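Quick one: co-fold with manganese (II) ion.
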Amino acid sequence: MLRQYELVDLVKSYDPDADEDALNRAYVFAMKKHGAQLRTSGDPYYSHPVEVAGILTKFKLDSTSIIAGLLHDTVEDTDTTVEEIRKLFGDQVAQIVDGLTKLAMIEQKSANNKQAENFRKLLLAMSEDIRVLLIKLADRLHNMRTLHFCAPEKRARIAKETLDIYAPLAERIGMQEVKTELEGIAFAELHKEAYESIQARLNFLREQDSDLVPKIIARLEKDMKENGIKASVSGREKSPYSIWRKMQQKNASFEQLSDIMAFRIIVDDVGACYQALGVVHSKYHMVPRRFKDYISTPKPNGYKSIHTGVIGPENTRIEIQIRTQEMHEVNEKGVAAHWAYKQGERVVGKNFRWIRELLEILEQASNPEEFLENTKLEMYNDQVFCFTPKGDLIGLPVNSTPVDFAYAVHSSVGDTCVGAKINGEIRPLRTVLQNGDQVEILTSKAQHPSTEWDRFVVTGKAKAAIRRYVRAHKRDQFITLGQQLLERTFKNENLEFGEKGLINVLPNFEAESIDDIYAKVGEGLVTAWDVMKAVYPAYKQSKLGKVVKSLTFSKTPRKDKSKAEPLKIKGLIPGMAVHYAGCCHPLPGDRIVGIVTTGKGVAIHTIDCKLLEKFADEPERWLDISWGDAVDDSPHIGRLKLMLANEPGSLGDLSNLIARNNGNICNLNIVNRTVSYFELLVDVEVKDLKHLTDIIAALRGSKVVSYVSRAG
Ligand code: MN
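Sure, here it is.
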């Protein structure tokens, strides 16, 4: 185990300005806090964070990272609080340790490794600070190095998780060295027999010609020198894991795999890479389909190199990689190398967004600490990842809601969702989901997609499902509405209503069936009166106008009992055959009236809406409507006009008061503003009229509100 002064010396060797005092304090703090805790190896627990800090010095990370590495398990495994760390070591260290603790908790939540890809993305999205991720990888690397001390069942699980999640993650941020080591250990654990037989085979080959690698290196060096290329050549056997992977991919036996050796030619610049390639290809036979140019087209993680396969010196099939020193550093060390390069020349790898952003910060930052501080992980910050109750992870775009989540699980879950529990608590369907939320969708067979959802869903899948449903059901809705309209109109006039009469007039309305007529009436393309006049040509219209006028312009309930019941909204889906007018925002409890709108079905207005005067001359459009007794769960919008004192905190007081009364502000408009007050229009989601009235009453009692009423 690294001793305290050894660790400090390591950090100071590459960062002379490192905060020596803080490093010393962190070392002692971790030692004290973990106290007598033991690792399964029998070592004192604190040896683990110390080794993790040691690995971080290999990446040449700043002292903040090293300190956070020393403290990374204190909050999770001891009585230490994040606040304590903040007081002793500052905000940054506290934030990083907090991030690591959260990651550890998320790790426990995820029961399902099948979703490794989403889990990796979640880790990336949650590691707001790149240092969180680097420390997490160092932590995993040390746990893997000491894996053999764990119980066998636990070993397999950790090894699999490493192969599924952490090795690809290391590759994703370009840390080839870490990736290779993680894979090597995990492979030896999970596929012991394959590992041992490959190892035995490699040993055998080595015994046959122990000088093969040095001989080939010498030949390649000579080739380069003869052609005036300055190069350093290295060679190695491929790792057992990469040999095994090749065997799996090609479905080949070890004997069939001829290139088990890889050589690297490192040169000064890009031009020399292609010169060296020319030399190799002119001297040795190229193996078809083994040539890859990752310099002109780098891998998504920024990896740059030329790969080729040839029948090389000694008639051996080999793989050759050609690259510059700078590419090599970045390929092996990834993000850490970018940091290490900060004092050197410009850095390569400007080919994907987040690295480019790293580089921009790098250019502007005056010191490495500042660089790391500003390096927020940009990856996947446009996505959120949430758990199903079984621990499966669902990836969604930012601002997604439980409805989006439900559709992502399955369209039948989406279609029937009535509610959601987020982290165990019932929350509205429009709630915006956060990373790591556990979401349980409540469903009911009686439910169907709601046009209301269209206001808040963000995923294409949810939007498409809602539209599909609307398309399929709009005509049904218009038919239902049209039939009701016709029946009522006929009944009001004491005329007989029947299908027979309608069949006779089908041609008048270019209709092929009775449903066609219903749909046209429901949609407002034809009025119920037009149909009635067609069926009973002798009927006089004059009598009708009166009825409508008495219904609309007297605000007292009608006494005329001879009339049919008003049409009930119940059974009609808001947004399809009926919709609420935006001018007066009717609420359940309001007296309402419907206006048949051409092509859009029925618009519902409050009975005192000013806009209704526009329709005074078109009595055939008017419709007596009631709310019915349906329990309508979807929120309605009530609009308030109010005067608010122009003073600090008044807007906060207002929104708190509305929230305390279970209202949700969905829009807010400042109409007028003076030195002493704001005049506002506030749209609030409420259940019904009484709910809005209660909110108004509460606002009237507030000191900051000088006037409030419902806006007409
Ligand atoms: Mn740890």
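If it helps, The pocket of manganese (II) ion is lined by residues 48, 72-73, 139 (CB under 6 Å).
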